[in-house]
Amino acid sequence: MDVLTENFSLYGKGLLGTVELTGYASLLALGLGIVMAAFRVAPVGSLRVFGTVWVTVLRNTPLTLLFFAVLLGLPRFGLVLPFTTFAVLALGCYTSAFICEAVRSGINTVPVGQGEAARSLGLTFDQTLGSVVMPQAFRSVIPPIGSTLIALAKNSAIAGSFSVTELLGTYKTLNELGYSIVWSFVWIAVGYLIVTLTISAVFNVLEARWGVPR
């Protein structure tokens, strides 16, 4: 317990950094993922191509490589932002590809007749997607989106290698102070467990309320 009690503020700062990184990246991933899913099913060919390229490139790019590209590449083009912001961009964009495919699979579960009925009433594509299709698709994609955001929380550990304050990075300071590396990692694991179980609990509540019975 000494590792935790004597370095509680350090662990707290790291945990807060992980929570903030996870929260902001999740919002970005959800927003981009839903937009890209809409692109993937849009009647405009150029939008479908853009959505397909976005998903294909990001899903097949190692996250560490994406971190290097964003945190080290963008400043070379004059875009200088805090490293935490770059980490949010990398995590959010990467995860958005998986959110997109989860949402698109939900859209595909909605009967085609629903969209045809909406169009017969004079609704535009945007209105049909937002008012008819998405609300039904959302109910079936709650579990996979929850799992994806849990993976995002764990992937945030990579940010510590790029001078971003987060939970895993605390082991460097603890190691320099001479604490047991084993117990340092035990409490780091407990921190990640708290974050992931919290996300899981939130999505369990959402699924119980709005999910499709299976």
Automatic annotation (TrEMBL):
Keyword match rRNA-binding: no
Which GO cellular component does the record give, naming just one?
Answer: ATP-binding cassette (ABC) transporter complex
- Domain of life, per lineage: Bacteria
Q: Where is the ABC transmembrane type-1 domain?
A: 15-207
Its keywords, alphabetically, are: Amino-acid transport, Cell membrane, Membrane, Transmembrane, Transmembrane helix, Transport
Enumerate the GO terms in the molecular function aspect. transmembrane transporter activity
Q: What is this protein called?
A: Amino acid ABC transporter permease
Q: Give the organism, scientific name.
A: Streptomyces buecherae
